Amino acid sequence: MAKSAKELFKLHRLQEDEPLLRGVHGNYLFEIEQAGSWFVAVNDGKIKVDEGKHEADCVIRCSEQDFIEIVEGRRNLLTAALQGRVQVRGDISLAQKFHGLVGTLAERERGAA
Known about the structure:
It contains 4 helices and 5 strands, in the order H-E-E-E-E-H-H-E-H. The chain has one domain (5-107): Nonspecific Lipid-transfer Protein, Chain A, CATH 3.30.1050.10. The protein has helices at residues 5-13, 64-71, 77-82, 92-112, and strands at residues 25-33, 36-43, 46-51, 58-63, 86-90.
């Protein structure tokens, strides 16, 4: 389990292709309170991660703890957004695709453990 958002993005920066994101085209900006901002460009499964702020189609803002719990599958992104724990701006369909990806990856990791 990752201890910080920075560790999570460092891990995923090495991964250049995610088959579950094939067919997805868009940009995300993750604004993690008191941790930083990361820009993720997705082009038909190809991923590019960059630290810093850029214009994005979908902006997801939350605390570092909420972000880690979402990525690790312990918190539901959509529920957290409805609770006001996470703010989502822009293309909601991209947020839903991220939510689906996170859920599938968490299940995959649980099955491998």
